[in-house]
Design a protein that fits this description.
By secondary structure, the chain is an alpha+beta fold. It has 5 helices and 7 strands. Strands 1-2-3-4-5-7-6 form a 7-stranded mixed beta sheet.
Length: 177
């Protein structure tokens, strides 16, 4: 686990696209999924990750990368987090995980748990006490993973607009007292 580097942008985009292909399969129409995860979208995500890493909006915006133990070391997942953006959260003490992704072929290997521990430690160091994340309502695996780690639904619901509206739910957890 380490802070992401600008040179990781291609790998972050690769992991995000693979994860989205898996998470959104059966939820959004195949042509739309192809558009969201095609070469043009990958290039856009790469540029956005490079900007997020190299020029974050605040010193409390973070991107962490999970890397494999084997040489050559490969980015297997990532998490981006910072001050909460929801109107009912206070960004002084409430954090938000904006994106949490593990490559589909690397799930179940501990990368997600290590990412969550690392981001929680980082957010606590930045003065946050709680953290929330929006998850696809239909993504039972991510929700089970979070709930098994002590996260809970907080009743907030929304819609993610990816060309079609996809229901999302918010989970939260305390990370410090």
């Amino acid at each position: 686990m380490r802070p992401a580097r600008a040179g990781d942008a291609d790998d972050l985009a690769r992991v995000q696209v693979a994860s989205w292909r898996s998470a959104f399969a059966g939820i959004v129409p195949p042509p739309l999924l192809d558009e969201l995860t095609g070469a043009e979208a990958s290039a856009l995500w790469r540029d956005r990750w490079r900007e997020a890493i190299g020029n974050p909006p605040t010193s409390r915006h973070r991107v962490l990368a999970a890397v494999s133990d084997a040489v050559p070391r490969e980015v297997t997942g990532f998490v981006s987090a910072g001050p909460a953006t929801d109107a009912d959260r206070w960004p002084g003490t409430d954090a938000e995980i904006y994106e949490f992704r593990v490559a589909p072929d690397r799930t179940g290997q501990g990368h997600g748990g290590r990412l969550m521990h690392a981001v929680a430690d980082t957010l606590v160091s930045d003065g946050f006490r709680t953290v929330s994340i929006w998850a696809l309502e239909a993504d039972a695996l991510v929700r089970q993973f979070l709930e098994s780690a002590g996260w809970a639904l907080d009743g907030a619901r929304g819609e993610l607009d990816v060309g079609v509206s996809v229901p999302v739910v918010r989970l939260h957890t305390a990370i410090s007292e």
